[in-house]
């Protein structure tokens, strides 16, 4: 299976019924918000390669913007290993829920997909999302007297670190200029990466 595919297994012997590329990339499901724990423990295993793509961005809070790093694919990471020899080790690692499978079918991830993601994210496996808001984005006010209101970004003023937002207020649209650390996008920033598996 040169480009990835599916590994069929015959349980309970845990041996593949079809020969797979050895080792192969698999999708690993991690405990919620513990992807980093799973990745760290998997990296300790000999003959297991780990790819844990993440994004870093400023998240607005009521106390100002805070830089956060999150999984690009929340709850998942990738591991390359010999399924027949290392499956039990991988699944028993702290932070790991399971290796993704569908009954007795264990899908593999094409190596080209992982390499393309690595190329886009760089050596550190982290993509920094600098430009948070663009005109036309839906946004939520996270601080100040207008906290909780949602509107559409009309203009971004980077030199003054402010965002002009059109808000529905008292039955009409009002344009207000707000410090950028008090405005948050309503959609997930991961959607901007245009990552397709």
Can you give a write-up of this model?
15% of the residues lie in helices and 41% in strands. With 197 residues, it is mainly beta. The chain has two domains: 6-128, NusG, N-terminal domain (Alpha-Beta Plaits, 2-Layer Sandwich), CATH 3.30.70; 138-193, Roll (SH3 type barrels). The strands form four sheets. Strands 14-13-12-11-15 form a five-stranded antiparallel β-sheet, with no helix packed on it. Strands 4-7-3-8 form a four-stranded antiparallel β-sheet, with helices on both faces. Strands 2-1-9 form a three-stranded antiparallel β-sheet, with no helix packed on it.
What is the number of beta strands? 15
CATH topology name of the largest domain, in short, is Alpha-Beta Plaits
CATH-scheme architecture of the largest domain: 2-Layer Sandwich
- Across the major sheet, the strand order is 14-13-12-11-15
Q: What's the number of helices? A: 3
Structural class: mainly beta
Order of helices and strands: EEEHEEEEHEEHEEEEEE
Keywords: Transcription, Transcription antitermination, Transcription regulation
Organism: Limisphaera ngatamarikiensis
Protein name: NusG-like N-terminal domain-containing protein
Domain NusG-like N-terminal: 24-117
